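Continuing the batch. This is chain 6 of the set; chains 1 through 5 are on the previous pages. Same settings as before, nothing changed between runs. Recording input and output for traceability.
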Amino acid sequence: MATRLNPYLTFTGEAKQALEFYQQVLGGDLSLNTYGGFGAEAPPGFEEKIMHGMLETPSGFTLMAADNPPGMEHTPGNDFAVSLSGDDAEELRGYWSKLSDGSTVSVPLEKQMWGDVFGMCTDKFGITWMVNITEQG
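Output for chain 6:
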């Protein structure tokens, strides 16, 4: 397998719902492993929470996520985003349409000063997404 860079998101109990939402948006195969599914004693109330989840899409995207177990600090921040970019305008507009539905749009998907079509939104799970459609020359 080639080396790859992909985001790993942490949640406080919504990892399953978030990954299922992203699967609806991006397609692909989703694998979910719960704390209780590994045979070891799960932290109380975490038997069905996600210890590790991975979404692999037909476009080659990989998104991983988990629910933080008790005792691990979870500090959501605005210092990261998930970026989707390329030149397939139809595909990227489709992702944008689904991701931005019910989200907070900070930059509408429109032509920007650098020539590409770009948009940024924060989805219902608090994750910031950037979509950049490279202008065909």
